[in-house]
Write a structure and sequence with these properties.
The chain is an all-alpha fold. It has one domain. Helix content is 72%, strand content 0%. It contains 10 helices and no strands. It is globular and about 45 Å long.
C-alpha cells in the first residue's frame, strides 16, 4: 500500500497536500464518479457494495433514512482511517468529498446525459464500473477518498498488505450477499460485475501512479552500483599512483 503516514508542519504540509496537480486530479475524479452514479447507477437496478450498499440495505429493512446513515457510517470509517492513515489523509479527503457533493449537485440540475440503460443491465454494469473505477482511481491515487467505503478499503489494504482491489471486493461482496435478502439474484450478479470492474480499475490506477518512482530509484541505484566497482578498482593493489608506488601498499619512509 502506497499511502504512508507523514508528519508535516502547517506550511510545508499545505504546500505538499494541495498542489495544483493533486487538486485538479481530485476534481476530475470526483466529477467522473458523480457523473457515473447519477447517469447510470441511480437510474438502473445496479446497486453498489460497501457503505452505499449498506445504506440501501438499512433503509429497506429498518426504514432508516440515508440522510442519517450516510454521515454516521462515513464518520465511523473516517475515524478508523484517521487512526491508521493520519490527519493529512483526512485533509485531502475533505476536498474530494466536498467536490463529489458539488459535482453531483451540478449534474442534478440537468437531465441525464446518457441514455437509460435499465433494459441493458450488462452494458450498465460495465460502463458503470468503468466510470466509478476511473473516478475513484483518480482520487485514491492522490491519497484521498470520496467516501467512507474508500477510506475503509485504503485502511484494510494498509493493515493487511493486500491489494486495494481485494479490500474493495471483500467489503462489496459482503454487502451484496446481504442485499440478496431484498434484491433479485440477477441484479446482484450484475452488481457484482460492476464492483469487480471498478475495484480492479482502482487497483490498476493506484499501482500505476506509484510505479514510476521505484523505477527511477532503481536506475539511480544501478548508477551507484556501477560507480562503486570503479572506486574499488582504483584502490586495488597493482594500480600505480602518480609517485610510482603501487596503490594499496604502504610506502617506505
Amino acid at each position: 500500500m502506497a499511502v504512508k503516514r507523514k508528519n508535516f508542519n502547517f506550511e510545508e504540509g499545505r504546500q505538499k497536500l494541495f498542489t495544483p496537480g493533486r487538486v485538479a486530479a481530485i476534481l476530475a475524479g470526483a466529477a467522473i464518479l458523480s457523473f457515473g452514479i447519477y447517469n447510470i447507477h441511480q437510474r438502473t437496478d445496479i446497486t453498489e457494495g460497501g457503505v452505499l450498499g449498506m445504506i440501501l440495505l438499512l433503509n429497506h429493512w429498518f426504514g432508516i433514512s440515508p440522510a442519517v446513515t450516510t454521515p454516521v457510517l462515513d464518520v465511523l470509517c473516517y475515524a478508523f482511517a484517521f487512526r491508521h492513515l493520519g490527519k493529512n489523509f483526512l485533509k485531502v479527503s475533505l476536498i474530494s468529498t466536498l467536490s463529489f457533493a458539488g459535482f453531483f449537485h451540478l449534474w442534478e440540475q440537468f437531465p441525464p446525459l446518457l441514455p437509460d440503460l435499465s433494459s441493458y443491465s450488462l452494458a450498465a454494469a460495465i460502463l458503470g464500473g468503468v466510470l466509478v473505477g476511473s473516478g475513484v482511481g483518480l482520487v485514491v491515487r492522490q491519497g484521498a477518498s470520496c467516501g467512507g467505503d474508500d477510506a475503509l478499503a485504503l485502511t484494510i489494504s494498509k493493515l493487511t498488505g493486500c491489494r486495494i482491489s481485494r479490500a474493495y471486493l471483500v467489503a462489496d461482496i459482503s454487502v451484496l450477499l446481504l442485499s440478496l435478502t431484498y434484491i433479485p439474484a440477477q441484479h446482484i450478479a450484475f452488481s457484482l460485475l460492476t464492483v469487480t470492474i471498478s475495484s480492479l480499475l482502482v487497483d490498476f490506477m493506484q499501482n500505476f501512479s506509484y510505479r514510476t518512482k521505484p523505477e527511477k530509484e532503481t536506475r539511480s541505484e544501478r548508477r551507484a552500483a556501477v560507480s562503486e566497482p570503479a572506486k574499488e578498482h582504483s584502490h586495488a593493489p597493482g594500480n600505480l599512483r602518480s609517485d610510482g608506488h603501487q596503490k594499496g601498499y604502504p610506502t617506505k619512509l
